Amino acid sequence: MGSLCTKCRSIRMILCGNPLSQYLSHKSQIDEAILSVLNKGWYILGEEVKTFEEEFAKYIGVSYGVGVGSGTEALHIALTACGVTSGDEVITVSHTAVATVAAIDLAGARPVLVDIEPDFYTIEPDNLEKAITPKTKAIIPVHLYGQPSNLEPILEVARKYNLRIIEDCAQAHGAMYKGKRVGSLGDISCFSFYPTKNLGAIGDGGMIVTNNSELAQKAKLLREYGWAERYISHISGWNSRLDEIQAAMLRVKLRHLDEDNLKRIHLAKLYENELANTNLILPKHRKNTTHVYHLYVVRSKYRDELQAFLRNKGIVALIHYPVPIHLQPAYEGRISCDNTLSETETASKEILSLPMYPELTDSDVMTVADAIREFNNKGF
Ligand SMILES: *Cc1c(COP(=O)(O)O)cnc(C)c1O
């Protein structure tokens, strides 16, 4: 019998993220929501999108939500709504999903990348002032891995230099900074509903949220050809729409978001207890914030060896992200980064994302922790 168990365990992989298990855990409600859209016959920008925009904006604590085609497009549209265009500069980090920088590129502006706080992997507020030039129009703080950026000093710099703050909340649905949800503190904020995100669709999707009615109106025009009414373009826009099936199922999942985030937080606590005596550097949690653990990222000098060791045991740990954006072929030499970005470059060599999703079990975490202890005991 023992061998059967061992065999089962060796066949079953522990994935880093698992959108299928998210679907299965809310299956009957999701199936029902999708069927109802199919039968209504209105498939893009309809009642479901409108209601989801209202519900999501209310959840974040802002007045307006504008559903769009992806997180990248949310950023592209938000930048354009803020008036960012060619010749302008936008400050963000190199340690992020490439989408953040791709969106600045799409808006025609020049990305200016600054270093991160090594403890939290988010933008270092002290690096902002020296990166500002007369061309700077906006700052994009990225709430990476589910951890809010240190928004207060960032907002202070923005006020001083009259810059827009565009929050990249693609990894931080529901995270809080000093009692407020991220996405409610900047001028305009962007979410992605890529399937593995804390609030994930079954395809692409994104949302812009803001308290500024003018920016919301502009974003609405931009996402559909600049139309204020059908077939009349008031500004030049393009097409980045959210469809009804995604909105209907995202409405179901939004009702479970807080409970799913609490499960992530519980699992993070469990990892923290189990890994306390290993030589890994564990995620630190900024005071007065709620970290929603989109990813559980540890650091090790033996990162590559650890990743391979875990993989051999059927545990998938990934690297977010292996090459900083300023060193990627598409961007190398084309973007400004005055300082050396040494924290970014060091982090990229040591970080590893352990399995983390709401349906991961306590016993899965124990399995991962056992494997890491075994790795440690081999002298790493
Ligand atoms: C996922 C992600 C995006 C982009 O979202 P897409 O929906 O994939 O376009 C932007 N920024 C960050 C930090 C992300 O993790």
Q: Can you put this structure into words, describing what you see?
A:
- The chain is of the alpha/beta class and 380 residues long.
- The protein has two domains: 6-20 and 256-377, Aspartate Aminotransferase, domain 1; 24-254, 3-Layer(aba) Sandwich (Aspartate Aminotransferase, domain 2).
- 40% of the residues lie in helices and 14% in strands.
- The protein is built from 13 helices and 14 strands.
- The strands form four sheets. The protein has a seven-stranded mixed sheet, with helices on both faces. The protein has a three-stranded antiparallel sheet with strand order 7-6-12, with no helix packed on it. Strands 10-11 form a two-stranded antiparallel sheet.
- Strand 6 and strand 7 (180-181) form a beta hairpin.
- The two termini are 33 Å apart.
- Mean pLDDT is 95; it is low at 1-9.
- The structure holds pyridoxal-5'-phosphate.
- The site of pyridoxal-5'-phosphate (PLP) has 15 residues, from helix 5 and helix 6.
Shape: globular
Could you estimate the helical fraction of the residues in percent?
40-55%
Radius of gyration: 21 Å
Task: Tell me the span between the first and last alpha carbons.
Answer: 33 Å
Low-pLDDT parts are 1-9
Q: Strand content of the residues, in percent? A: 5-15%
Report strand order across the widest sheet: 1-9-8-5-4-2-3
CATH-assigned homologous superfamily of the largest domain:
Type I PLP-dependent aspartate aminotransferase-like (Major domain)
User: What is the H/E order?
Assistant: HHHHEHEHEEHEEEEEHEEHHEEHHEH
Please identify, by name, the CATH architecture of the largest domain. Answer: 3-Layer(aba) Sandwich
Number of domains as seen in the coordinates = 2
What compounds sit in this structure? pyridoxal-5'-phosphate
Mean pLDDT: 95
Number of DSSP E strands: 14
Could you name the CATH topology of the largest domain? Aspartate Aminotransferase, domain 2
- Put simply, the count of helices is 13
